[in-house]
Design goal:
Layout: E1 4-5, E2 15-18, E3 21-26, H1 28-33, H2 36-46, E4 51-57, H3 63-76, E5 80-84, H4 87-105, H5 123-130, H6 137-147, H7 150-155, H8 158-165, H9 167-178
Parallel strand pairs: 3-4, 4-5
Antiparallel strand pairs: 1-2, 2-3
Helix pairs in contact: 5-6, 8-9
């Protein structure tokens, strides 16, 4: 989830909780000051393909101006208006919108919740281990997943190897790596 705040003075949208949603905040001061916010909302309506949401602060002071803002925004422009009591409530609402947008689109997951894959196996090391008779790609990956290097595979006991790839394959791997025929073991 990425909430981007737009600091550009000439910009229409204040926040982008997703790539296709733009939020404009109309504060109590904007409503009391006059109709300057109307130009910004009209530009928001023309912005494509952004879905516009207007968050308007509705307090005791701005209550008399809110109905005019609501009529203009909803009836004339066809935008959504969400009244809030404070800027703190507006901030919490923007965070909620971003969470909903993230869940519905599935885009840009939270990087702290992503399960990291283990380290990848070096392809040249994997190819080398696969040259050991009796080892295919699956068993070679199992060995490298447990022992991490060819040196550790050579140092591993037959018991440790057999826990990973089975007894017969472990005997074959040990005899190949130590160049001791399996019949003399």
């Amino acid at each position: 989830m990425k909430i981007m705040y737009n600091e550009d003075e000439g910009s229409v949208v204040d926040f982008y909780p997703s790539h296709d949603t733009g939020v404009v905040i109309v504060s109590e001061a904007d409503q009391v000051a006059g109709n300057a916010y109307k130009r910004k909302l009209a530009k928001l309506r023309k912005t494509q393909p952004v879905q516009g949401i207007v968050i308007a602060e509705r307090t005791k002071t701005s209550a008399q101006y809110f109905s005019g803002l609501q009529d203009f925004t909803v009836l004339e422009l066809g935008l959504k208006v969400i009244p809030v009591e404070s800027m703190v409530e507006a901030a919490n609402l923007i965070i909620q919108i971003a969470h909903v947008e993230h869940k519905s689109t599935g885009s840009s997951p939270n990087p702290f919740r992503i399960k990291r894959k283990g380290p990848t196996i070096d392809s040249s090391l994997l190819a080398t281990v696969q040259l050991i008779p009796g080892l295919g790609a699956v068993k070679a990956k199992l060995l490298l997943g447990k022992f991490k290097s060819l040196k550790e595979i050579v140092a591993a006991s037959e018991k440790d190897l057999s826990e990973c790839v089975g007894k017969s394959t472990a005997v074959s791997v040990r005899s190949f790596l130590l160049k001791v025929p399996a019949s003399k073991r």
